[in-house]
Amino acid sequence: MKNHQHFLLSPLSRAPRRHGRRGFSLVELMVVVAIIAMLVAVGGGEIARAWKRQKLQSAAGDVKLLFQRAFVEVQRRGYPVFVKVGPLVTAGAVRYMPIYLIGDADQNGVAGAFCRNPVAPAKGCPDLLIDEYDIVVHGLSGTMGSTGVDQEFSLSDLDVTKVISTRWSDNTTDWLNPRLLMCDFQGRAIDTLTGRQIAGPATLVFTHVNVVNQTLQPPTRYVISINPFWSVRVVKQIKDSTPAWVDQNG
């Protein structure tokens, strides 16, 4: 029988040493963290801008739908309907720019006092408030507008306190003055000051306040048009290097 004792007495062979493995140094970790922070900052900023552009597009679509409803409501209710932009409403710390859809319930051809449930003219509420869209200036979030928010949308690409429009019954630049058009039984867009059908599209600019202060690129706005025979069109425009506003698809 062979003697295997010498195998048992032999020293255990040393495990092979692994070379090239070590932890990260503090400097390396700091560099990685800095790179990640930069990527988050760049990507987060672009996500925020994309979100603002999407909200702008959605809001412009909401205004378009409100305007389109005017002719539908004329047929449904049997009396003319007004689209009214402004004036600016200030109630304490709350400020907003309303866009109204008003039914001429007393059928006098004038957008008079209105509420959601019109009563006799003697009560001071002869016309019907069909719908309303508010452009927030300050303090319309939270309960009863108790928490302040900053203005998001603007009716001018030049000044957030102005309105750019054409062929409305009041085309001054101060947003304290209302704009008003009437849709009559024949579906015509009527200038309420002259009582006549408008001669061309009545346009309204809709954009983001960050376009006005030049922090949202590329500069984007939507031009909402009401045609002489009531139909509504929205055109997206981008400012090019000229700089001029050019129409965009989508």
- What's the helical proportion of residues? 10-25%
**Distance between the ends:** 93 Å
| Count of DSSP strands | 14
The overall average pLDDT, rounded, is 83
Largest sheet: 8 strands, mixed
**How much strand content do the residues show?**
25-35%
Tell me, briefly, the overall form: elongated
Structural class call reads alpha+beta
Order of helices and strands: HHEEEEEEEEEEEHEEE
Which radius of gyration do the C-alpha atoms yield? 32 Å
- Figure out the total of helices: 3
- Counting structural domains, the number is 1
What does this structure look like?
With 250 residues, the protein is α+β, with helices and mostly antiparallel strands. The protein has one domain (44-248). Helices cover 24% and strands 29% of the residues. The protein has 3 helices and 14 strands. The protein has helices at 5-9, 26-77, 209-212, and strands spanning 81-85, 89-91, 94-103, 114-115, 127-138, 153-154, 165-166, 179-183, 189-191, 196-197, 202-208, 220-226, 232-239, 245-248. The strands form 2 sheets. Strands 1, 2, 3, 4, 5, 8, 9 and 10 form an 8-stranded mixed sheet that branches. Strands 6, 7, 11, 12, 13 and 14 form a 6-stranded antiparallel sheet that branches. Strand 9 and strand 10 form a beta hairpin. The radius of gyration is 32 Å and the shape is elongated. The protein starts with a helix and ends with a strand.
